[in-house]
Every structure is written in structure tokens, then in C-alpha cells.
Amino acid sequence: MKFSILALGSAISVNAAVLGQRATYAVVGKPEGFATGVTGGGSAACQIPSGIAQLKSWLADSTARCIVLDKEFNFKGSEGTTKEKGCRPASNKCPGNGGQDAINKASWCTNGNAGAGVTTIDVTYDTAGVSGLLVGSNKSLIGVGAKGVIRGKGLRIANGAKNVIIQNIHITELNPQYIWGGDAIAVDGSDLVWVDHCKFSLIGRQMFVLGNGASNRVTLSNNEFDGNTKWSATCDGRHYWGIYLTGSSDLVTMKGNYIHHTSGRSPKIGGNTLVHAVNNYFHDNTGHAFDNGASGGKVVAEGNVFQNVKTPLLENKGQFFGSPSTGANAVCSANLGHACVLNSFGSSGALGGTDTGFLSNFKGKTIAKASAASTSVASTAGVGKI
Ligand SMILES: *[C@@H]1O[C@H](CO)[C@@H](O)[C@H](O)[C@H]1NC(C)=O
């Protein structure tokens, strides 16, 4: 009798401790801009997966969930390694000091994309890295402090998945030595996705990519895109494949992101995507930040800092408003609800972009606010900051 009372007492105290912890696990804040209204797992109790198998199944199932990562979940080796024929693309003229070879995904090595002078080589890669963990609808995935790390595998929000929040998670080490080694977060055929205070590093392919299907409303806020790599497609220690926003008339807000040590696609835009890029900090980019050369992309860039960015805008075959002057920026008020804010430039090329005919696309939508351009983004973006 006495024994069972003690057992009951200890069960109660364990529960209280768990409940006490749960109260501290929650999505912090709400998104600004296009993904306004996202609720993720909503009021589902937050739970910590026991390991990579449970994390995989909780992300993919059709239950509304709040999934908490309080440590590193390492997928490296969990699906074995693949050895096959890949290539050394023409861009890799730096094998001695770290270039990027390629996996032959989508016939990339043989369809001309790898450039003239491409050679076939053997590639060996971690199989888990090349395909992301499927994420279903109504999920919040959140990290504790700076401890929520997913190593060796990314996330894929697709097949109609809606209403997903990814906050305070570091995704790293997806076969960084290989082009097509893996995408950190891929979204394709989705709606209402908010990626906030995440970090991406040592990724083989895209750090963030919207696929060809409609991804509808997306907000990318306060993330750190860290392009430092020993395997650079541009042979200079910087990652080329940053952010690719194609799709089908997607709406993307990019606010407060710190995008550094990249050399291209930071971001590339296509698929008639409407982008509001506000208060981001683009730092140390040896190639281009925006590439609007895929046609159809529509971009307002305001209140951003470009510091040591060689080419802020590579090409504009869509429409681009680069908030060129206080006088010109007043035009934003009628459609974005505020006069656009000047961008700031240090040791960088010019942004340009004076198209205004598309600004009416913003009318009636939820638009992120704009502050003065500031490098303080470097200390607020990324994991462990909320
Ligand atoms: C997601 O949540 C919404 C609102 O509760 C619900 O209508 C919908 O069926 C859920 N989706 C899935 C796939 O469970």
C-alpha cells in the first residue's frame, strides 16, 4: 500500500515536470507578410521525438503536431551510401583547393548544364541527404535554444501539405561536396509555410527552394543562410546555390534574413513569383544576390543592406523595383501601405530596378512592415536567438 502511494506520488511529479517543460515549448511570435494566418500544429501538445525514425514519422503523418528538437538528429548513414557515376562540371576548375562535383540528378551532368569540358567521375554520397523528410499539413517543428539540429537530411513540404511552421532549427551537412547533394528545405505544391529563425549550412544544393508547383503563401524570416564551404562551385569558399524561388505565382515574403558568404542565387526568382524582400542583410557575396533572369519574377526589394555584394541584381527579365530614391519610393504607398525604404550599399554594385507596373499585385495582401536598412540583422537571424 505504502509502495503504491509513493509510486503515484512520483508519477505525478514527473508529469508536472513534463507539463512544466511543455509550457516553455511553443512557436514564438507570428509571421509577417504573406504567410500571415499560419498556425502549424496549433494547440497540439509539444512532443520530443525519441529518435530519427519517430521524427520522420511524426513529420509525415496526418496528425496536427508540435514537434520539439532538443538535440541533434543525425541522419547521416541512416540510408547507407550510394556510389555511382557523376561528374566534374566545367565550373570545377579548383579540385586541389575545394570545388564542387555533381551527382547526375535530372541528367544534369549530361544535358548541357554541367558545361563544356565536363568529365564523368565516380561519386559516393550519403543517401539520406538527397531526399528530404516529408512534412505533412498542420505541423510546427521547433528547436530548443540552439540545440535543434537536423544533420544529413532536409525537409520537403509538398504534395498539398499546408500550414507548416519551421522555427529555430539548424539544417546542416547535406553532401556539401556535391551539387544535387540535397536541399535543406524544399516546398512544392503547398500553402502557408513559415520558416523562421532557422540556419542552413553546408548544403549540397539549395538552402531553400520552391519547386515548380504552386507554393502559394510563404514567409522566410530571420533565417541565417551561411554559405561558408570548403566545396564551392565558384572556387572561393562560398556557396552558389542559395535560395531559388520558382513555382507558380507564389507569394514570398523574405524579411530579416542574414544571407552571407554566398556567390549566387541569393535569391533566384522565376515562375511569376511575387517577392517582397525587406530588411535582409546580404553580406560577402562574390557573385550575385538577386537573379531575376528566369522571366516572370516580380520583386520589391526595400530596406536591405548589401555589404560586399559584387552584383546585387544579375539580370531582370521579370519586374523589379529596387527602391531607388526617396522620391520614387513613394509609389509603394498605394499598394504596399508604406513608402518603400531605401536599400543600403557598402562596397557593392548597384541594384537598379525601376519597374512599378506590377506593384498593384501587392494590393489587398498582407504586407510586412519595413524598417531602415540595418546590419543588426546579423545578430538577430538564425538559431538560438529567440
Ligand atoms: C489541418 O487542419 C485543418 C484545420 O483544423 C483541417 O481542416 C485539415 O483537415 C487538417 N489537415 C490535415 C491533413 O490533417
UniProtKB/TrEMBL annotation:
Keywords: Lyase, Secreted, Signal. The keyword Signal applies. It is an enzyme of class 4 (lyase). GO terms for cellular component: extracellular region. InterPro entries: Beta_helix, Pec_lyase, Pectin_lyas_fold, Pectin_lyase_fold/virulence, PEL. Its EC number is 4.2.2.10. Residues 102-312 form the Pectate lyase domain. Residues 1-16 form the signal peptide. Belongs to the polysaccharide lyase 1 family. This is pectin lyase. It comes from Aaosphaeria arxii CBS 175.79.
